[in-house]
């Protein structure tokens, strides 16, 4: 099975903005858009990434690890939902979780705006483990893969982009991973914030996952195979050992898929494709946006040895 991973789309759509919607943290975010971010991210690049994943890479499923919007406005969510609906059989082939930009204000969280727009992509085959927040959700793919969606996004003060997994969700996810229907599958966890400190950030304290150590320990204890995230807009793969047994947890980020202009390719627009077969991660391909004429090209590939039992 091939699973595509995109993140941090930052769709911008300011249709009939209402002034009172900017009497909060959006005032700073809007200024950032005006002077920088709006020039970096492109919906056209997002559409090209999704086309490339579907037609050229032939992925079976697409996982999106948050920040579909810039300011968590209804117009941005509607535009992002329209883009996802263009994917053939999207409701069966796409999984989505929110990022910090999708929970930009307390009003956004209280209204559950993100969940209302993207509910078709957050269905669960194990609904009994959902907390009041709607997370975690679990989706079975083929006979041996489980995709678990977690929420680390929370509203934060101005100039902060931290995340946190609340106690109820953390305990529910641990119980879900221990369920016999999930335990023996190849387990993929989607989360927006990074699980280990980001070495390239000068403001790590204000954008970290507050309880990252606790979340990472839980994933390692329950033998999660792959954790995919966004947030940093930077390519990274990290391998850490499980706390039981001999397996490993791979933690992966491709970057922000929508970036069309960059100097350092590590911060360029990218997506990953994970090749999973017989309960093993065989290969990770990373594709980089080159230009509007060329589109995405393969940039990196990591292949992993498959142990074959002696006859």
From TrEMBL:
Keywords: Hydrolase, Iron, Metal-binding. Residues 1-234 form the Calcineurin-like phosphoesterase domain. InterPro entries: Calcineurin-like_PHP (IPR004843), CNP_phosphodiesterase-III (IPR050884), Metallo-depent_PP-like (IPR029052). The keyword Iron applies. Pfam families: Metallophos (PF00149). One of its GO terms (molecular function) is hydrolase activity. Signal peptide: none annotated. Belongs to the cyclic nucleotide phosphodiesterase class-III family. This is Metallophosphoesterase. It comes from Persicimonas caeni.
